[in-house]
Protein 1
Amino acid sequence: MPSDAFPDESPSALDVGLLAPVAVGHDAEVTDAAVLDALVAAEVALVRAYADVGTAPRAVADAVESALGWRGVGEPCRGHGVDPVALAGTSVSGGNPVIPLVATLKERVPAEARAWVHRGATSQDILDSALMLMAFRAARAVVADLRATEAALAAFAEEHRGTVAAARTLTQHAVPTTVGLRAATWLRAVHRSADRLEAAIDRLPAQLGGAGGTLASFVEIAGPDVAPRMPERFAASLGLAAPEAPWHTTRWPVTELGDALVAAIDAPGVIAADVATLSRTEIGELAEGLGGGSSAMPQKQNPAGAVLIRSAALRAPQLGATLHVAAAGAVDERPDGAWHAEWPTLRELLRLALGATAHAARLVEGLSVDRDAVARNLTLTRGLIVAERLSLVLGPRIGRDRLAALIAAARGGDGGDLATLVRALPEAADLDVDALLDPAKYTGLAARLVDDAVAGAGDVARPHAGAQPARPEDTP
Amino acid sequence: MPSDAFPDESPSALDVGLLAPVAVGHDAEVTDAAVLDALVAAEVALVRAYADVGTAPRAVADAVESALGWRGVGEPCRGHGVDPVALAGTSVSGGNPVIPLVATLKERVPAEARAWVHRGATSQDILDSALMLMAFRAARAVVADLRATEAALAAFAEEHRGTVAAARTLTQHAVPTTVGLRAATWLRAVHRSADRLEAAIDRLPAQLGGAGGTLASFVEIAGPDVAPRMPERFAASLGLAAPEAPWHTTRWPVTELGDALVAAIDAPGVIAADVATLSRTEIGELAEGLGGGSSAMPQKQNPAGAVLIRSAALRAPQLGATLHVAAAGAVDERPDGAWHAEWPTLRELLRLALGATAHAARLVEGLSVDRDAVARNLTLTRGLIVAERLSLVLGPRIGRDRLAALIAAARGGDGGDLATLVRALPEAADLDVDALLDPAKYTGLAARLVDDAVAGAGDVARPHAGAQPARPEDTP
Amino acid sequence: MPSDAFPDESPSALDVGLLAPVAVGHDAEVTDAAVLDALVAAEVALVRAYADVGTAPRAVADAVESALGWRGVGEPCRGHGVDPVALAGTSVSGGNPVIPLVATLKERVPAEARAWVHRGATSQDILDSALMLMAFRAARAVVADLRATEAALAAFAEEHRGTVAAARTLTQHAVPTTVGLRAATWLRAVHRSADRLEAAIDRLPAQLGGAGGTLASFVEIAGPDVAPRMPERFAASLGLAAPEAPWHTTRWPVTELGDALVAAIDAPGVIAADVATLSRTEIGELAEGLGGGSSAMPQKQNPAGAVLIRSAALRAPQLGATLHVAAAGAVDERPDGAWHAEWPTLRELLRLALGATAHAARLVEGLSVDRDAVARNLTLTRGLIVAERLSLVLGPRIGRDRLAALIAAARGGDGGDLATLVRALPEAADLDVDALLDPAKYTGLAARLVDDAVAGAGDVARPHAGAQPARPEDTP
Amino acid sequence: MPSDAFPDESPSALDVGLLAPVAVGHDAEVTDAAVLDALVAAEVALVRAYADVGTAPRAVADAVESALGWRGVGEPCRGHGVDPVALAGTSVSGGNPVIPLVATLKERVPAEARAWVHRGATSQDILDSALMLMAFRAARAVVADLRATEAALAAFAEEHRGTVAAARTLTQHAVPTTVGLRAATWLRAVHRSADRLEAAIDRLPAQLGGAGGTLASFVEIAGPDVAPRMPERFAASLGLAAPEAPWHTTRWPVTELGDALVAAIDAPGVIAADVATLSRTEIGELAEGLGGGSSAMPQKQNPAGAVLIRSAALRAPQLGATLHVAAAGAVDERPDGAWHAEWPTLRELLRLALGATAHAARLVEGLSVDRDAVARNLTLTRGLIVAERLSLVLGPRIGRDRLAALIAAARGGDGGDLATLVRALPEAADLDVDALLDPAKYTGLAARLVDDAVAGAGDVARPHAGAQPARPEDTP
């Protein structure tokens, strides 16, 4: 890489993950090589569509499939022999990689098939469809990791269904809650974001509109009766939804996916923020199973997974915004820059989602609770973690002012502990003070909320390992 | 500092719309006064919920309703007499307006009802629920304007179903399309964004979790059997969805709505970008019915509606991003700033959506087409607007190089016009050259795509005026 | 809309601060009324410029000044009698408030002066100049609050120059530092952001280019020799820098100011993030002098100032981005929406900066340190806060593996405390183990870094109260 | 997912430029390999600093330099033999690449030097310093391209100093201007952004604070008298500014650079937006020397350079925002994710700036003007491009109403052309109507503004080729 170790022939390997460790090892579906494979698949799918509708001979499609490494419906091509680095270099003058790719692919197919390559299509048809194919596959992996996270959260929430802990608002101890409820809340957010992303995936359409979105070229080539069937056949080969209409300038497929991806990173982001907070040295309630080391301080165990997830969660919203800026500026029948701004932005969002959710699954699977720390922290306010309850129970009995005085006294610790102060009240004579002050008896519907959340996640409650086989890269 | 004309009693009327003309006249549902009315409604709804579940006497709820201006399910209160400016002033020390509001409201209800005001609730329950109520009403108005825009677009697309025009890609004439197809494409985007926003509205939940999201206070007050019913009853009075669980720190109700609002602004944004472009002095294909004047140039007719819409479309994406930044940072059981960052951001998004969609409906309703300009522009490339077709038809006959030469000759204009050049080809002897070169005969599926889009929008094809009565402010 | 309590005469008072408590009480310089006052001042300044260069009679300028409430160089007008709410309403059709304002102002000046109002100017000249005037005044107040924050930080840093505390990296205790150094680091950031904002303020230019940025109208009116002097005279009356050239489409005055404002919010943002963290119940090292209460939990003292500042810091970056999106899209000689998107965005940034810095000054002035908590926390790692030092000192003596074992033992607490473990090492026989393990003796250059920072802030080390009189609103 | 053509040994080459053609060929300074080279340089610089202050033997520094490919002050190392792909893989567990890098580098230096590698430093010292080194070099190349753009703009502006053209506001013809003034305005913006970026570059500091920002480790190693000199010596070897103090959590070096980079992209962004607009088929005033082709439409010449630049300009603002979000969230003595979010974001900004400015220089150098189109467009409003002038000259003579009628008549074309209409006015008898209506005589100070701008850019008026040699990659 510039250094001697990175040879001249790949001068543009800009990003191998060094500055984005969150995604390293999880981004295989969204590399430039994967983009290229998807572009080739889109070109093959077009020829297949012509064969499907009876316009091109099936033998032509077969020859193209064979020459360009077709591997089946919904699969990127492989073995086509096109070099992504070289293609990137030749993409500059026209502003997109499809123009030089078409020339290259035509050389690689038999002469009789040449005319069918890219026939009637425009660059945007191929590039948009390829990005949707890539997005489909990557987002499916994101969903798998969200489901794995859900499963791990469900188990964790159940395990800590009764672990009473301090709830914190505006950084301060507020009232009791349970570790389980906190996890159940994370679970609901992850579950919802997975559902939303799944719905977005199902809608991802292929793009086939021709130069101006009228499909005129396809009418010219295949005739007016057959041309309307082309988009559906094209989409079918890519495993994508058939487009309702060309969407060259109505970019909801990109923004809806982008929004769902940002949300799919928000959810792990909250887990990470809480884990980072609750594993602070002073709090110590949570610990990642495998913390990160330090180059200078041998004693440290950093919440490294949470840190990586947070690095993604801080970046994602602005990437999502760029997709909307581009969408709102989609002038004419193909915009002059707004479209181009989408490509790397959508890819980076997919990459962050892949990384953030993979780390979330692992983090939750390895998350440990220090029950002693949880219990110890619960006592830090000298019993006042149940002040709200006192307010509800004693307020009507002793009035607001005396209650405030009692709480102030307990807070300062001068007048004895809270139990003593309460027991000293004549008006509290009939109360079970121990029960009244027991945080475990003031957790409201926490257990029920845990149970509901876990039940809602039930159908996904399978181990992470089980989720993996479904991923494309693991198929033989 | 306000000028003398802006009286002292509202020292903090920061924004009366002077710098955001896009929303002036359309923002009544989202003013601070409307926020206050919704806050009061949330407090009343809480007392009503206690009465509904049998914990509070119905007479208490009646008294509170009467004292605080309750106007019915899903309606903000009015006539409560609380001053939003004064309340803003007292909101600073605690960081939110609910704390001082509760004190004020308690003074305004009968003594026997006082204890029931805000009972068991936390500020976030009230503020989140009020914002959802405001959002519900405002977003409903946005949907109405999107539907009105759809209706206007459907009529416009049908009218111009056969008006052949130049499609432009990367700013250059590409192939023919129709004015109708362009409008149909706008229509699809508006339709989709309206559907999406409607779906988001339906999901907007009330918030009721108590201080730590456990509902412990409600269990204390109403008992463990009855407390679980409180959120549903609370939501019912506000006309909102019952929350599945407290969402103090899982902010999908805010981000999903925010994303849908940004998309609802993107769609008019594209219309505005196209209208601004196509009404350029040199292009002149479109004109707003009522252009804006100039302070210096008496001859100008500016596309003022498009400009206003674009001012919103450029701002919305970053507001949406802020909601996600806040959502991903929702630590603890109530975040220390992220929650607070949502309030004005969500409101501003609603405001922009109200303004952008209202102007979109009007813009489309008044949009006029200069058919002469459209036709004239279509000829600007000396017939080469159908070069793609020539490439498809003549390419196989005369080969790539001769085709390129022919196009270059036609482009330069040296060798005569395109028709002459084509007719001179022996290989074109059997072709109907006039038909081949007629842009109107190379519009592919444009008409069909128009018909489909218009049919899809059918159920909303009602005039703008008709949509208005549905808005709350117009009800008697 | 608005409740009955919010009278009809201000139907568009969208924002009185209810949802942005951070700025309430600090935003007088940036209200719409203040914008209007600045717009009027810009119109008066134009007539004054004509008089200054000898084109208009001085009496005309005097009459206009008198009629429109001129108050002096760099001052917004007052008493002009224009209603901002009404003006907002009439601004919609033309898309900006200057067009209707000119008509109104002409009615308010003597007949003989009428022709001189807005003469030769374009809306953008007036609006840009007015926003710069507003920005100048508001940003100056921001700088004053930053300087007050600096002064408070300098005092705080000196006071806690020797208060040894845990430094935390990635949420974990790392090595010792001092409370003073942390404050000195805050101080440096605030100081730098104040310097940067001051520099940006000094550069804020008036705008005077005429309709197309050529100043042709001024050449027509004042002649080619005199016209070039107009911008400088115009700027002089507004107390702004003379523009090098019209900047209708080169928006650096807006983006450079915007960037500086975001940075001026970042700096308090870091203070707020640290204060919120360090005032967590479990950490308890810092407390705001005046914490915020809770509507439900009587015992709580929230870090309300930090929360408000953070609400601003989370919003500002995206507002800054919008200014750049607008700047990069400044097509033609006046952009069709990008310009309009700037106005409310810049104002909101100013507002957030005013609020965030005012709260920062107060927060720091009232910030208290719980030295016991600081000292207690320092011991939480059982002495391992100095593990890095052990590594440096003992590493060469006992080797890496034995060191790791020693640290693991100390961490677990099994083999006795750290001092005992170190003393048991033969290789440590010559070491002063108490000194070696004393966190106070491993704070490096902390004291020196404090002194440098405080010295650098020296010229501003004046109390907050002293900074106030410099503000315009306080002048008699 | 890597195709067969993309070999296994670089499984994580996520980005080779395929989706970001704007930067292909211009990003050598900011690849991950370049980052790695800079990281190694930072480690070498640390050892050199120890030697400089006399703590380490010079021979140790020499040995380290030799082993790790040191190439001189301000130069990244090369030939160190570390593989960036492998390093990315080992960076995940600790969350940053420095931890595994240190282990690798220690193996590559002689045994006696091993202890000096990374001694006393923390990961952030090395990573921040390396990013600053990379940024310094990349930003210098950006400045060179901005200067080349300036030079080309100066020549272009001079050439078209007298080419009268329509100025457009809100998309409509407004008044005359000149092609030269438009270019001069671009020039001013580019010039300013270059100056700002240069100033930011000069300030870029190295980072050296040790684990907690106290430099305690350096005091331990080098003693209290010598340690304070370490940061300056460290910075000197990297060619960076000496840090005033550790900036682990005060991220102005990143945000100030980021802001300047966004501004350096805004300026070309405006040029690109104007070029794209003015090269529209209907306008045709400008053309890129080398337009881009189309995959479907052989006749098209797209403004490909403008499109690429715009793709960058639409993305940059949000990247800049992310840097501020990270800066404002820099808690503790090293933040838990905010720091990590900066790395890829800053790199991408540098990359976009490199690409956008390189394309801007080329675009301007090849930009051609169609003077016929410019002149033809100027007539499109039937002479009313000078309506403002008529208003100024005739208004006082014939009154507002008659003037409006005259303009309306000219606009409609019914009453004859504008000249005829004016000549028919008795009040215009003494006027030179030809001169009055000549757009070339109503360009105000355009020529003067061109001259000033060109003079201001004078010192950079050197050809692009000349700027190149200054770039590091071109040195032998």
Protein 2
Amino acid sequence: MNSIGTLFRLTLFGSSHGTCIGCVVDGIPPGTVIDEAAMAQDLALRKPITGIGTPRKEDDVVEILSGVVGGRASGSPLTIIIRNANTDSSAYEKLRDVPRPGHADFTALSKYGADVDIRGGGQFSGRMTAPIVAAGTIAKKMLQDIGIKTGAYSQAIGSVLDWEERTLDDMVHIRSVSPARAADVVIGECMVEEILAVAAEGDSVGGIIKCVCENLPIGVGEPFFDTLEGEISKMIFAIPGVKGIEFGSGFAASLMRGSVHNDIFAVSGNDIVTETNHAGGILGGISSGMPLELRVCIKPTASIRKMQHSVSLAEMKKVELQIGGRHDPCIVPRAVPVVEAAVAITLVDLCMRGGFFATPRVNEPVTPRVGGPSRHG
Amino acid sequence: MNSIGTLFRLTLFGSSHGTCIGCVVDGIPPGTVIDEAAMAQDLALRKPITGIGTPRKEDDVVEILSGVVGGRASGSPLTIIIRNANTDSSAYEKLRDVPRPGHADFTALSKYGADVDIRGGGQFSGRMTAPIVAAGTIAKKMLQDIGIKTGAYSQAIGSVLDWEERTLDDMVHIRSVSPARAADVVIGECMVEEILAVAAEGDSVGGIIKCVCENLPIGVGEPFFDTLEGEISKMIFAIPGVKGIEFGSGFAASLMRGSVHNDIFAVSGNDIVTETNHAGGILGGISSGMPLELRVCIKPTASIRKMQHSVSLAEMKKVELQIGGRHDPCIVPRAVPVVEAAVAITLVDLCMRGGFFATPRVNEPVTPRVGGPSRHG
Amino acid sequence: MNSIGTLFRLTLFGSSHGTCIGCVVDGIPPGTVIDEAAMAQDLALRKPITGIGTPRKEDDVVEILSGVVGGRASGSPLTIIIRNANTDSSAYEKLRDVPRPGHADFTALSKYGADVDIRGGGQFSGRMTAPIVAAGTIAKKMLQDIGIKTGAYSQAIGSVLDWEERTLDDMVHIRSVSPARAADVVIGECMVEEILAVAAEGDSVGGIIKCVCENLPIGVGEPFFDTLEGEISKMIFAIPGVKGIEFGSGFAASLMRGSVHNDIFAVSGNDIVTETNHAGGILGGISSGMPLELRVCIKPTASIRKMQHSVSLAEMKKVELQIGGRHDPCIVPRAVPVVEAAVAITLVDLCMRGGFFATPRVNEPVTPRVGGPSRHG
Amino acid sequence: MNSIGTLFRLTLFGSSHGTCIGCVVDGIPPGTVIDEAAMAQDLALRKPITGIGTPRKEDDVVEILSGVVGGRASGSPLTIIIRNANTDSSAYEKLRDVPRPGHADFTALSKYGADVDIRGGGQFSGRMTAPIVAAGTIAKKMLQDIGIKTGAYSQAIGSVLDWEERTLDDMVHIRSVSPARAADVVIGECMVEEILAVAAEGDSVGGIIKCVCENLPIGVGEPFFDTLEGEISKMIFAIPGVKGIEFGSGFAASLMRGSVHNDIFAVSGNDIVTETNHAGGILGGISSGMPLELRVCIKPTASIRKMQHSVSLAEMKKVELQIGGRHDPCIVPRAVPVVEAAVAITLVDLCMRGGFFATPRVNEPVTPRVGGPSRHG
């Protein structure tokens, strides 16, 4: 279904070439400041980047239809829509007969039948991630209010890898100015070159996004099934193009010895820390207090300018396929704010479930207490 | 929480050193054959392997407490328990003060407080996966009934990698006799050597499990959030020790070009296939009809014989820690049937949600139809 | 939370005096005809009735923002909004200090704090039921497509009771022209008189709505907890003003003997029927094939013109309260289409869960089958 | 499905004549005292009452299989089983052909097919409520710990009605000694006489149970759908034999004027109370601080000694039916502790969702805080 979350719940709707895309966010504590400027800023990070992105121009102006009064959440579901301005669907008509390789056209038609909306990818489009980013702004604000900070950046694009440890500050500040959403200016420039080279060939390239979350309190995550890794993964795989996810040491752990992989506990002031963080901040599905670290692999964009082959479903024969429309040669940079938003949304839900957001009624009762004997009669 | 699934729901209970471990499986169609011998066979694959496993001996005899009459599911929840026979908890007493590196002791104590049961890992123990295997036997039977086959094997243990394509037959037949649960006899022997070498040093080693599912019909998986990847990942990360998951090309996709990664559609008889399967059988979160392929990374066992360091929580100072108890130097082989079961359980739920199990009332009405005008008076 | 349903899920948003009210409906099978004219007709039944209703005029024009292409559901979530045109909130300002008796002002302020939107009842307003009616039009269409018919009518308003058995035809046809939404013209006129008499005193009156559903197949409802009664009740109590619900014989059963209450099975043609229907069409939480019958009690409107007392929360003293704004002296007639919609929405979800909607892929495969051996590499 | 609850979740299993009945309770805060003696006491209230109940003798000894260490909840799911000792299923064999009027035999066979277990009512049996009572003991303890008290009693059995206001003390103390579970000794004796008179005729009788909950804090209940009434109703209708539920004034509200029904707010010390409680302690689906009051109607027992008619499904003709087995002429007294348990379980879940149980980590951190910079490398 198109909803996710237990106490903080996101419901997505819309399609790439319909009237609009949007979402309903339920469970926002009343009084939470809803910062539309911050939302616009986060959405700007998701926009196509001049020179290396699709020429599709969407203003992505957020309209809030419900749930906010005077800039603050009212406690009822918050509804966001973003209108689709720039929809030329003509290029998509023949996809009903000739499905694009690497896209959901074929499976969507098979599952939903002829009425499914596949224009621009329909409900499978990367454009559906814009409302996730908008909801993520709210989630990040809620996390910040209890001291939790999140960040994400392009760690690899094609063969350009950034294996340095990056601070959250690097991520947040440099990536805003780096068109590749890198955490280092020079590496970001190399990444842009990689993308331009690939684009020149009419091809596309993938990459890896790293996401970090600091100051997460100990105890976030609900074993056995609603673990930190499990809940985050489910959310992350909703992002089109994701092929894998790993936490901490990840797949490298398969080659390590236990004596190396185990993070040794140590005392640091009044805190207990670990000397390494191969666990990625998670033990037994529960946050350990060390930074949460995860990496997400994004495949090369399925839509490429190069001539490809596919089949005509009507004629059941091989045909050539030249994809028109507007596409990014690399979606990794645009997926950076999406991954960050997705992680933040999941963390808010798990923090609420774990009782990490103090409720107003416990701390500061708003009104006098009702009570007294029953007088029903 | 300890439940997962929408229409086919698994609820786990128990702890490593309590009375028993077990599960409730809800949603099994009445009449489904419950094969206790097959369950025992699957559980045998999860047992410690003589020579390379822990000396803890558990008979793992399944008792079915409810939901089965005459060898067939009755439609009410099926409850399984496996009693814990071999529980010497004395070694775990000091862990409340000195948490083991790489284990959930520290986070469990922080989240749940002093009353949490951490003997033998408590509810975080790998032993909790035995009921998953038992439930998986039921799920695999249900999948087989509609033609779907699943298999899993150790693809890598430490530095011993098996990069050949393996057929489901290889997986299922060879892994039963290979102590390493490999799909190739010779590679399996190398894996055992690797494990023995590591064990001799008092250390442990990780690895990678590959799981494949064939004949999955097109259309399994519910976008936007309840995708095939998302639902499987959430389930897989419940397995202790998992650090990452990838589908199809996985993390390798970050280095590929779109023109290479895109799987080209082709006609094969009356079917549409793809020439490659980098997608791992999934497009847009929905099964494409090509084999579902996924890889899971397992970290080296956290419990090692080697001397380690940790802290005393009471004294807030560094201490030495020598872990006793009984442990596997490599849990990868034992996790193979668990991964297979976890995938099968998730697939059954998604197949039910997608309407791929015909319900008896549609095909073969059991009793005459009740009807007639209202005669309430 | 503001979502309900497992496979057919309704998410409500908006508030009485905000920008709009609306809902997201997830799980509509692609290809389902979305009849906006029928939606408008159902919404017209919920509008204030000239002469006996509030003078608040709302056009209640439905805008569909997503999920429909060419008049048919696309399989992605359907989003409906209804803009609030006629919102004079000035009368609601002092309610933050002086809560209205019988309203949610006091509990909403206590639970959500000062930021809650209580203008016009906010998210607790009866106006929130308009999107339920719109979603109900879709649900009723889906039920009709498999032969299930639903109807509801005012069975009692104040002391005017209609104890005759009414056919679904009576309900559907007469209630459209009866301002009281009665199933009998004369009784409807008496109800209107009752309402006018009460309104003349500045007071309000309650009543009872009966809902019937015919041709429900045997087997709808999921024991133990997701029973037909349980799921319907949960939904019905979301309607503001509901104080009770009963099925079949209902509370009268407390005075009956088992030999009278038991519905005797009988053969009728090829069907099995029962001679009476005290069970209201439900046995063991599952539909029996006899008509589903339920009754819902609605309290007298809380907002009355008469002078009342309340307290000033700021001064903690008794004060007089004269409620302005626009209100119905009886909401029973307007709640009739809401009850019908709520029941239909619940039935669709339970019918989907029970497999009573044939999925397109079972009956009419849309595209050729993908398949073939794995060629990953 | 057989699970209910969001943060405090109950999963039922077993059947009347299987090995056992039982449940899994997930979400119990670690450290909660699990009082097996109190459980036994509550279960004793549900046992057949000598003289007026079925001669089926079940010891109903609770075995706790998991989730408790040293008398306290460990934070992992708590599993309870109650073995079925006294199961003579021979009387149930012919029910597969001749369904009993008023029972779920017919609908269960239609929905689940021939494999369903209908011995003794199978999973539809009133016996399934024993684990609910056991789970209710835990829920009531949790509520008591934050000052909330619950009680229930037989308010009516057949024509014997108790219309007095009863205090919680009356309910709890008198009902334990009253075989009818009445809140008044004399009325209880009249109820027993009513039951005996009906039993002498080989017939059965129904009744009404009232449940009250005091000191519920203001703010429990989650609009729009997860209201106090909605969540309680869904749970209550899982109890076999329930035909209706009403809150506060209930169905009587249909005959009242708004000026009478509205509960006027008043100041009482530092509290705000209402002068009457027609709302039953709920406004807008949220607790108001006044006592929660609800009434549940139970139908006369379907199993009666009197000769009845039914049909043979095999021969499709009318047949006579004499029901053997062991049955209560009135299940109202035995349902009293079940209603109380069901309400308590629902309230705990809603209190947890509303943040009314302070979590240990907020108030009293158990261990030092982990933290420090990322040292992944």
